[in-house]
């Protein structure tokens, strides 16, 4: 076999491009706006620069506000200075939580995970969708949470008049 065929060349090129770690990719991008069916980015750890330049479009912000009015929440991990979004639903609402995951999958680092919680001593299975932590979520955290009186790093969810500018048909639908 003197000359490899075209398919072999494409496969080798694809393989060599695929093994480049994301941390080695250099970019001068000023914004990243994941939207639509861009593919899930699960099991890919984004570097700080990639997370810092990620921008949430208005539809995603409206969806997050709607979830935060209900079963959604924003949390800080022990090691992060930026919050991440968590949405929890019972397993009975699997179709809905899968829809939520598909719309937020570009921002998630993992697929939704199944867990078993106890409510009044009875096991209740639930599923959680979690995004990565992004600086863009800090604005929503400041909007929805105030420091609790009980201690440092404890937050209480509040509804303020500042929230009115974020209410629209999309946020109210979620």
Give structural notes.
- By secondary structure, the protein is an alpha+beta fold.
- It has one domain (34-138, 150-173): Endonuclease I-creI.
- It has helices spanning 6-18, 48-52, 58-68, 94-104, 138-144, 169-173, and strands at 72-75, 84-90, 113-119, 122-133, 145-147, 155-157.
- The strands form two sheets. A four-stranded antiparallel beta sheet has the order 1-2-4-3. It has a two-stranded antiparallel sheet with strand order 5-6.
- Residues 3-17 have low confidence and may be disordered.
List segments where confidence is low: pLDDT < 50 over at least 5 consecutive residues. Answer: 3-17
Strand order of the biggest β-sheet: 1-2-4-3
Write the element-wise H/E pattern from the N-terminal end onward. Answer: HHHEEHEEHEEH
Overall radius of gyration = 20 Å
Cα-to-Cα separation, first versus last residue: 59 Å
Number of strands: 6
Q: What is the CATH architecture descriptor? A: Roll
Total of helices? 6
Quaternary: single chain
């Amino acid at each position: 076999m003197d000359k490899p065929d075209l398919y072999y060349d494409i496969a080798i090129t694809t393989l060599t491009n695929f093994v480049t770690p994301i941390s080695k990719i250099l970019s001068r991008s000023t914004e990243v706006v994941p939207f639509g069916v861009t593919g899930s980015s699960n099991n890919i750890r984004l570097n700080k620069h990639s997370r810092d330049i990620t921008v949430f479009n208005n539809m995603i912000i409206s969806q997050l506000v709607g979830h935060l009015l209900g079963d959604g929440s924003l949390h800080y991990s022990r090691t992060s200075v930026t919050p991440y979004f968590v949405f929890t639903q019972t397993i009975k609402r699997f179709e809905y939580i899968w829809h939520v995951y598909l719309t937020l999958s570009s921002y998630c680092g993992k697929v939704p995970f199944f867990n078993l919680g106890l409510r009044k001593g009875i096991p209740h299975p639930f599923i959680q969708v979690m995004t990565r932590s992004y600086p863009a979520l800090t604005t929503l955290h400041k909007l929805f949470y105030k420091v609790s009186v009980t201690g440092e790093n404890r937050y209480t969810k509040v509804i303020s008049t500042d929230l009115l500018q974020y209410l629209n048909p999309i946020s109210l639908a979620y």
